[in-house]
Specification:
Length: about 180
């Protein structure tokens, strides 16, 4: 990773650190999931005030420290509109926790950022939060490599005709 870098990402976690600092976890398109320290972010007159909230899409400029990146500048691109719907907030926090647990720090999963961005856009326009959550979970597990591919044979890697009946077996094909 470069010493100084600028990237776009979505904030998925924030943890208070020390007296005035905050550790922020950001899912980015180019770098994957990164952990950054925002020095003085909890002070009332902080330059980060109101810009480091969960689910905000931000442009961040960082300096790579010894262990964590140090945020120098944050520009807000867009955020979640405020809503008093408890179910929506419950699903949003569950999505953030899933994303944080499934993707390791400094791990890049292709299209995970775009998937999260699409879900955050869709959650504003729907009231079917449970369906959106399950679809996100299945797609994220597939992108991370934890979910099997249902359209290819695991043994020979040939494409399967999903219009015909498929029989699954617990027996190993090599036996």
């Amino acid at each position: 990773m470069k010493r100084n870098f600028k990237t776009t990402g979505i904030i998925i976690r924030k943890v208070d650190f020390g007296e005035a600092d905050r550790i922020v976890t950001v899912l980015t398109d180019e770098l994957g999931k990164i952990d950054c320290v925002a020095k003085g972010a909890r002070r009332l007159k902080s330059k980060f005030c109101g810009r480091l909230e969960l689910f905000y899409n931000v442009d961040i400029t960082c300096f790579q420290g010894r262990n964590l990146s140090i945020i120098k500048e944050v520009n807000l691109i867009n955020g979640i509109t405020d809503c008093k719907n408890v179910d929506r907030h419950r699903i949003l926090f569950y999505i953030a926790e899933l994303t944080n647990r499934l993707i390791q720090s400094d791990q890049h999963i292709e299209n995970a950022y775009l998937l999260l961005q699409n879900v955050l856009d869709c959650i504003e326009n729907t009231d079917k939060y449970e369906i959106l959550l399950h679809a996100y979970l299945i797609k994220l597990l597939t992108l991370a490599g934890f979910f099997p591919s249902w359209n290819k044979c695991a043994t020979c890697n040939n494409s399967l005709n999903l219009n015909k009946s498929i029989y699954l077996s617990t027996l190993d094909a090599n036996v």
